Amino acid sequence: MFKKLSCLLLTFILTACVTVDVPKSTPTRATMVTSGDLSFLSQSTPRFAWHPSLARVATEEGVNEDKVVGLMRTAMTKAMEAKGYQLVSIDESPDLLLGFGIALESEMSDAEILKKAGLVPGLSTAGVDADKHEKGSVLVALFHPRMAEPAWRALAQGFTDSELNKDDRQQRVDELVALMLGAVPSI
Asked: In what side-by-side order are the strands of the sheet with 31-36?
């Protein structure tokens, strides 16, 4: 009887074991910090323009900076328009200015980011294949038009995926920027 029960139990255990190949996925870890005061935004501040000097990209050679700036501006415009804001020219006396910066870890360390932006999320690269993915940082800043320093800023870090096609890349940037601008009140 004991042999039969043992065989039955062993058979049950062995039939429940299944081997499945799990495809390696892109690291989706991300972290974000924010700082500042958005209280100057209200129903009477609906118009925004691009900051005249804060649209910086620090990536490796070969990356088309204009395309990266275009991706970010498209994502920021979508996020702000969804909240009721309107993009205008800087010559039209906007109510707020938006700027951004993007950097890869190979071009700017966390220490340099902290020195320049005053923030750093400190995303760990432990367990990430450095040959396939690189840590990237994105800064989004809102300025009162008459102030030199940002009134509010958000800094996010995540991992790049150079194999994404253009549409998937734009969607990923759109989602990140919408998350980063989530604290901006709708009007």
From this structure: 31-36, 152-159, 135-143, 96-104, 47-58, 86-87
Query: Would you tell me how many other CB atoms lie within 10 Å of the CB of residue 16?
Result: 7
For residue 142, give Cα distances in angstroms to 57, 103, 136, 150, 155. Answer: 17, 18, 20, 6, 12
Which tokens hold the place of 31? 């972290």
| Tens-level pLDDT at each residue, the chain (187 residues) | 444 433 333 333 334 444 444 344 444 578 899 999 999 898 888 999 999 999 888 887 767 888 889 999 999 999 999 999 999 999 999 999 999 999 988 888 888 888 888 888 878 777 777 777 888 899 999 999 989 999 999 999 988 876 777 788 888 889 999 999 999 999 8
pTM over 0.70: yes
Sign of CA dihedral 58, 115, 173, 43: negative
3-state DSSP assignment of residue 102:
strand
Distance CA 92, CA 48 (A): 9
